[in-house]
Amino acid sequence: ESTTSDIGSIIEEKQINSLPVNGRLFQMMVFLAPGTTPQAWGDQDENPAASGSTASGGPGNGTYASVNGFFFAGNYFMVDGIHNNEPANDYLTINVPFADIQEMNIETSNPTAEYGTFGGAVVNVTTKSGTNQYHGQLFDYVRNQAFNSKDAFALVKAPYHANQLGGAFGGPVKKDKLFFFGDFQYLTQHGGQTYQLVVPTAPMRSGDLSSFVNKGAGPIRNANTCAILAAANGAANPAPCTASAAVTVPGTFDTVPASDISPISNAVLAPSVIPLPNTTGPSNAIFNTVNTEGVPQFDARVDYAYSDHDRFFARESYLHRNFTSPAPGTQFMKGNNPNATNDNHLAVIAWDHIFNPTMTNQLRVGFNRYVTNDFVDSFGINENNTLGILNGNLAGIPSTSGIAEFNFQNSNFSATGDPGPIPNGLGRLANIYEYSDAFSKVWGRHSLKFGTDIQHIQGGVANPQNDPRGCFNFNGDYTGTDPNTLKFISSPGATFADFLLGAPGGGGCPGGGAVERDLFIDLPAVRFNFLGFYGQDDIRINQQFTLNVGLRYDIYTPSVSVRNTQSNFVTSGPNAGLIQLATGNNRSPNVNTNYGNVGPRIGFAYSPDNGKTAVRAGFGLSFFPDNFGADSGTLERNYPELIQENFIAFNE
After folding, report:
1. Cα of 259 vs its chain's centroid, Å
2. Burial bucket for residue 590 (CB in 10 Å: 0-12, 13-18, 19+)
């Protein structure tokens, strides 16, 4: 293309069906464009559109691209002109099956003013429509562990099996008038992974820490601490720590008396919670787990050619997923991911009207729904209460169901619990109602285009900040501190001694504390709007030179809570530093709408040899609200909507 200043790629059906792509995910086709690198989001609980991928996520990996060095959340995905991202973390709503894609248009530099709310790339997928001929296909793609090697640290090969099957069919209902196209795809995947845990041995669980003696020095530096902490926890017969024959350095110890061991710690050490070793070596408990997911999805499209001047189509896309990620060893140990269910929709109704050969209009009305529900592996079990933790699991508050994190700082011991911000229910919700209209007119040397894109968004991020099931961190401060010099000697043995004595300390919990918990008082529900207006003029100066000029104006309203539960700091005046609660007159406290998002686009394309060579240059400004909180998940995560308790040990 030698008449536009923007740079992009068009990937057609033949390329899409011919190239081997990890998981057969259309978003990974973006990596075919120059200037793209993998950056974020693999196949995990909140990312159903990456189902089937083996990419782990993170810089240099994942299924989402950084384009021209720009953060991945600046990419804007559309399907048939309708927004295909959720706004909080930029997850894709629908992974469009390859069988349904006609082409992909990837704009990576200086798109026209028609496109806004982006920073990296603009990706528009065009789906297939029926024709006057019946066409269809069936497919089944299989991957399994037969060709995989065993993990070097695994006891046996981790199982892996993925099966993606389905079909597509389209054709005429009434020749030259009414057409249909649809597809169905079902993914089942069982992906094994190997966990290398470090768990306490049987002697350690009884208070024998002689395996931590180093050059005759025991890990415990203050024997009286044991008795003091045991008494504080209500032990009937508190006693000082002692030294076994393995200890030869005076003033150091390696044995916690059985009478001093906290009942809660003793309960946590039950093999039903923290498993016993099943092998020797630095990692003494090795387990294979199998993540499973089942993902049925379909697309259905109907096209109606009402006349030579009017054509309509409607499409509905739906995806459902069940995702499980078992914890290693027992359901109370910390694993990589929670379990999840997802139900996503993407629908559009379109009307294309031709006024005359030089004037057209395209109207789109769409609906995008993204929903994810996340649960810990121990959901439904009030294990905190069973362990004896007062108010550990709260009736009527599902997010507290399960077990707390018992974290062993300054050691290699594996933690209990789960990735903390798991709500045990609705985690993320986005409903996007979209209206877009584009009017085009060719007038002499001018190709004019004017339009608007308006989105009303209902959203909510209900993931807790840290962990509603709680966190207890142990770091060895108490038993590892010399009472004479007050010098702390870090040691895994001291960490475990503190745990046995029920003495949290340090700052290893997710929020930097020794004991933490946070709870949402009510599930967040916010509303906000995106409004975009643009004009574009592509001027064909002569056969060799085209000038592209555009102007776009975007308005992004701040999110407001439907129940006015947001809060923010007062930043100036006599009340600076105090908390401002939302009111009817200040619904997004102290955050104002920015009306200055004016984005010019200008560029040219020059071809001296009838399209064989093209020289392009362009300049443009684009705006978009940042993810990870700007569109939901910020002001409603403040007090009093989100209550967070964070305690740090007194001796710090």
Report:
1. 45
2. middle
What is the distance, to the nearest Å, from the Cα of residue 281 to the centroid of all Cα atoms in its chain?
Answer: 35
Please report, as a single letter, which amino acid is at residue 599.
G
For residue 633, pLDDT beyond 70: no
Residue 652: pLDDT band (50, 70, 90) is: very low
Q: What is the CA radius of gyration of the chain?
A: 30
Burial class of residue 239 in the structure, from the number of CB atoms within 10 Å of its CB (0-12 exposed, 13-18 middle, 19+ buried): middle
Q: What is the DSSP letter of 159?
A: P
Cα end-to-end span (Å), the chain: 65
More confident residue, 34 or 446: 446
Three-state SS string over 79-131 comes to ECCEECECCCCCCECCCCCHHHEEEEEEEEECCCCCCCCCCCCEEEEEECCCC
Asked if residue 460 has pLDDT above 60, the reply is yes
* Residue tagged 């910390």 (tokens): 334
**Can you tell me whether residue 322 is helix, strand or coil?**
strand
Residue in 144, 142, 191, 146 with CA at minimum distance from that of residue 163: 142
C-alpha atoms less than 13 angstroms from C-alpha of 387 in its C-beta half-sphere: 30
Question: b/e map of 470-499 (b: 16 or more CB within 10 Å)?
Answer: bbbbbbbbbbbbeeeeeebbebbbbbbbbb
Q: Is the pLDDT confidence value at 139 over 90?
A: yes
Q: Is the dihedral of CA 287, 414, 520, 43 positive or negative?
A: negative
Closest by Cα among 37, 358, 366, 25 to 187: 25
State the Cα–Cα distance between residues 78 and 82, nearest whole angstrom: 5
Return d(Cα 181, Cα 302) in angstroms, integer.
Answer: 7
In angstroms, what CA-CA distances link 275 with 202, 495, 509?
10, 19, 22
Pick the closest to residue 31 from 59, 65, 58, 61 (CA basis): 65
Burial of residue 215, with CB atoms counted within 10 A of its CB: 0-12 exposed, 13-18 middle, 19 or more buried: exposed
Give the three-state DSSP class for 26. helix
Q: Which amino acid is at 522?
A: D
**Residue given tokens 């004991």 in the structure block:** 515
Tokens found for residue 239: 């006693």
- Largest distance between two CA atoms of the chain: 98
Residue 1 banded pLDDT, cuts 50, 70, 90: low
Least Cα distance to 214 among 485, 498, 490 occurs for 490
Rounded alpha-carbon distances, angstroms, from residue 180 to 125, 173, 301, 316, 352 = 18, 7, 6, 12, 17
Share of the chain above pLDDT 90, in %: 67
What are the CA-CA distances from residue 547 to residues 76, 617, 619 (Å)?
25, 10, 12
What are the residues facing 459 on neighbouring strands? 430, 526
d(CA 299, CA 316): 6
Across 465-469, 475-479, 628-632, the highest mean pLDDT is recorded for 475-479
Q: Which amino acid is at 590?
A: N
Strand partners, 406: 472
Mention every residue, 6+ apart, whose C-beta is less than 8 A from residue 435.
Answer: 364, 365, 366, 452, 453, 454, 455
